[in-house]
Amino acid sequence: MNQVVDFINVNRDRYIDELKQYLAIPSVSALPQHAPDVRRAAEWTAESLRKAGIQHVELIETPGNPMVYGEWLGAPGKPTILFYGHYDVQPVDPVDQWTSPPFEATVRDGEIYARGSADDKGQVFMHIKAVEACMAAGGALPLNIKFLIEGEEEVGSAHLDDFVRSHKDKLAADVVVISDSPMFDRGIPSICYGLRGLAYFQIDVRGTKTDLHSGSFGGAVANPGFVLAQILAQMKDRSGRIKIPGFYDAVRELSEAERAEWRKLPFNETKYRKDLGAPRLFGETGYSTLERVWARPTFEVNGLLAGFTGEGAKTVLPATSMAKVSMRLVPDQDPDKIAELFEAYLKKVAPKTVEVKLTRMHGGKPWMTEFDNKYVRAAGRAIELGFGKPPVFNREGGSIPVVSTFQTELGLPSVLFGVGLPDENAHAPDERLDLGNFHNGIIASAYLYDEISKL
Amino acid sequence: MNQVVDFINVNRDRYIDELKQYLAIPSVSALPQHAPDVRRAAEWTAESLRKAGIQHVELIETPGNPMVYGEWLGAPGKPTILFYGHYDVQPVDPVDQWTSPPFEATVRDGEIYARGSADDKGQVFMHIKAVEACMAAGGALPLNIKFLIEGEEEVGSAHLDDFVRSHKDKLAADVVVISDSPMFDRGIPSICYGLRGLAYFQIDVRGTKTDLHSGSFGGAVANPGFVLAQILAQMKDRSGRIKIPGFYDAVRELSEAERAEWRKLPFNETKYRKDLGAPRLFGETGYSTLERVWARPTFEVNGLLAGFTGEGAKTVLPATSMAKVSMRLVPDQDPDKIAELFEAYLKKVAPKTVEVKLTRMHGGKPWMTEFDNKYVRAAGRAIELGFGKPPVFNREGGSIPVVSTFQTELGLPSVLFGVGLPDENAHAPDERLDLGNFHNGIIASAYLYDEISKL
Fold it and tell me: Which residues of chain A have a CB within 8 Å of the CB of B323?
């Protein structure tokens, strides 16, 4: 392993230059106009796997964006890792809030700024470079590895479940490794053992055929902007509790043991609040901030649009209004069941003065594992070797629905081996990745292969 | 007057061609990029006054858009009319909902479709053509007339009050005539004796420094989109009553006599609802639709914006949210007082978890007059001569704040002589003006000069 680590240290700058090329491809899966860029990112990913020494690499077409699949199976008798990641990225708006252009990766103060740096190209690339280093230093990997890198993670992984289901033999492995989550905090590497699920919707309200003059008609008809506000306001009470009947029925309550563990974590609520720039923190009564984010479900407004939103004033009654809303789910909530409950409640609270349409956008199941399984312990040792300290064990507020798919369809445990930081603005302007963590992450990834090979 | 009417009938088609040119100028006062177009519309208005035979025409600069002023004072001893109108227009978005381009006036089924056709270029032009016809037929007008046509009506007439106050001699007259309101219904000409006022605001909510990932942070901080919905929902109760404390204190209640008059008006609620395409009508409990629109104040959402509003899904917690809201006011509510009450209530209902900023956009006082004054009666006769039937007397839900200014500053009564139709989409896509009403309106305007000259 010494030679591997030496190789990684020597090539540090080259890795950054290559990563910049990867980050320059605007592979925004949510926007149809970026479809060619998405494909270009898939090809770039495949090519970098080939260069790293992966024997067999292919782009596999789906009804949506292609999967990048690669395998190196030169260690018969040894365990097989299935590495999962994604090469697509979130949209960049509001683009004027970026300090440097989102697709011109820029290094400032030891961090690389670009859309996709933390989520997830940077972390995917980390593993590719760990493979390259093992190959360069020893001519082989200590175990077998399969890469599955998709292009639709940011739009709900619409074709991944089908793909996994219909390629069970191809994807057969011993453990799934995923690097698509942040570590607990700067200088505090972590292993994540729980994720929230997701249920995302669009609500469309129509009041009248066309926009109307608010003088001539104001008072005579329901206002879709106001009705939407009324509807949304009924989704949560003042204590932050979601009012959808049945919403909490399947929620697994936190154990006292888990709460006690989390209280020991070095979490500074004041610093957290200040970093976010929030006047006050706010969440469900009766839970700490970490509990709210890791173990409690949410109802959030992701977008609102109605009427006139330009500069100045327009005295219009909007004909329509729109909200994007989503719920983060926790074990054992089911996104389909939650969608039903939401739809029923929406129907109940929506007034008959408007037409309300609900569109289900996408959903993903929450996930949680025992953190004393042998793969998690191996990952813990690898992180200690790469980062110089043992990891803490945490849950994550985000969603990686595929973790649940791998468990259900392939019967595989997952190790969430993330090196992002919680303040790296995944999904927001000025997304970035700490280059120290990127570098240590390459070393830790190489150690992870070594540690798992010994199991 | 026969010669005048003959002239108007002969020139019918030419008027429409000229009006098309006027409507082709995108004089949108709310959008800074249209400033040159606004000026061009002012110059076009001035030139058409000159061509009509108005002796003295000038553009008068203000800190905003220029006023077009014109006067013909060739009838000493006769009354003087001050005609007020505006050459600016509303924005055109959503532009994709227009059947034909908003600045390419198109005639379909006897109606001319274009932004500004009804509000207010078409009605301004009607008076200019009436002057032209009187001049052509008799070489003179039967009375004195002053034109004051401004370019900021759609953005709150910011500089009009000052202008009127500092030009009292220039604007001295006997009566103000304004054609900027609809008639009661197709085939039912009307004289409007009351207008609602306006108080328009923008609410900006900030939760955090930047947009956040709804997974990593959802549950820990207040969501500005949701908070905005909560705030707005507290502005009205389920019966449609506004909850701002003190809001109704100055509202003049409808008299039983007035309510009885309005019940006699030929108003078909089912047709009205169907024309608007609303599933149901909705408004304040205890009042009829006409009462709600003409004599009751409103709170309306004019615009909403937060987070991700594009196609697809983005799991973002928006950093900010924005609402444009406005209230229509009735006698004797005062927009400044209402703004204070609103600001105090907003402060009370806004949670401390976010920053809330209120911007006062513009306001205008409500207005109401006795409808048995001699000018209103003269206008009634003119309408009967132009449209072949006597007008009904109604109030209007819209606002023409200048009416109140003319009353206060110049001590002048106003005659609201509108020939638009209530379904002509002023402020909405497919704004239009009925060309029959436009034509009859020119004739009625000429009769109006004649009738007032006899007083």
Answer: 225
> CATH no. for residue B241?
3.30.70.360
Instruction: Report ipTM for this prediction.
Output: 0.82
DSSP β-bridge partners for residue A362: A200
User: Hey, which residues 388-407 in chain A have their CB within 8 Å of chain B?
Assistant: 396-399
CA distance A139 to chain B (A): 39
- Chain B residue closest in CA terms to A354: B279
Residues A212 and A93 in one domain: no
Residue B399's pLDDT band, with cuts at 50, 70 and 90, is confident
Q: Is pTM, for the whole model, over 0.80?
A: yes
Give me the number of domains chain B comprises: 2
Q: Are residues B106 and B176 in the same domain?
A: yes
pLDDT band at residue B435 under the 50/70/90 scheme:
very high
Helix, strand or coil, per DSSP, at residue B278: coil
| Domain, as residue range, for B448 | 2-195+366-453
pLDDT per residue over B323-354, tens digit each?
A: 999 999 999 999 999 999 999 999 999 999 99
| Residue A269: inside a domain | no
pLDDT at A242: 98
Nearest chain A CA: its distance from B45 CA (Å): 23
pLDDT at residue A399 in the model: 83
Q: B-chain residues within 8 Å CB-CB of A220?
A: 272, 276, 281-283, 289, 292-293
E strands in B272-371? 298-307, 316-317, 320-329, 355-364, 367-368
Task: Give whole-number Cα distances, A261 to A267, A389, A397, B221, in Å.
Answer: 12, 18, 17, 23
Instruction: For residue B140, tell me if it sits in a domain.
Output: yes
A206 → chain B, closest CA residue? B278
Provide the CATH number for the domain around residue A143: 3.40.630.10
* Average pLDDT for chain A: 95
Domain for residue B271, yes or no? no
Closest CA to B299 of B247, B357, B356: B247
Closest CB from A235, A280, A319 relative to B353: A280
Helix and strand element counts for chain A (H, E): 13, 18
pLDDT above 70 for A371: no
Sign of the dihedral defined by the CA atoms of residues B393, B399, B404, B410, in that order: negative
Q: Which pLDDT score is estimated for B427?
A: 83
